[in-house]
Specification:
mainly alpha; rod-shaped; 5 helices
């Protein structure tokens, strides 16, 4: 089956990743990329990357990691303040609800999440 430019570009990315990982040197990278762009069929393209490891799936984005960390920190602070407030209410009676100070940061995190920050893009 004939190879398209899109196929060649996808194959070119594998030697690039292998070179970035130190699996092949620059000369071999250059040879493989030239061979990929000279290939006429998909079979020729497969031979260019046959001995290279398969590409790894992409990990979570930096914004997703940041939102996860911020949300966990916020949840820990809310849980701590609620527990502290509950102890104060049990021992001293009604006291100022400290936990209300965490409503605004929680609202900000909710708005960011609702607007798509920290969520994977739909494919």
């Amino acid at each position: 089956m004939r190879a398209s430019d899109v196929d060649r570009k996808l194959v070119q990315d594998r030697p690039h990743a292998a070179h970035a990982q130190g699996l092949i040197d620059l000369a071999e990278f250059d040879t493989r990329v030239r061979t990929a762009w000279d290939a006429k069929t998909r079979g020729e393209l497969e031979r260019v990357v046959a001995d290279l490891p398969a590409p790894r799936p992409a990990g979570p984005s930096a914004s997703r990691v940041a939102m996860t960390v911020l949300t966990r920190i916020w949840l820990c602070l809310v849980a701590f303040s609620l527990a502290l407030w509950g102890l104060l209410v049990l021992t001293m009676g009604w006291t100022y609800p400290v936990w209300v100070w965490f409503v605004a940061p929680g609202a900000v995190l909710g708005v960011l999440w609702a607007s798509g920050v920290g969520r994977d893009k739909e494919r």
